[in-house]
What we know:
Elements: H1 3-18, H2 39-53, H3 59-63, H4 68-79
Helix pairs in contact: 1-2
Amino acid sequence: MSREEILSKVKEAFVSVLEHENFELADETTADDVDGWESITHMMIITEVEKVFNIKFKLMDLMNMNNVGDLLNTITSELE
Length: 80
């Protein structure tokens, strides 16, 4: 699966949880850049992403994610 396909599915997960599309996701995007992306919705987004890709993140991976690029890299490594 290409990085663009992964990003597209991640965006769908964000839209599903946040219930709006008023944001762009790029590697450098953080929670500060997206309305509604707060601590509780963060966990809901992570859960939705795990469901979409049928993966389970390790705690260390979650702790090391600082932006969308880190999320995409972790998903990519889980899918390999």
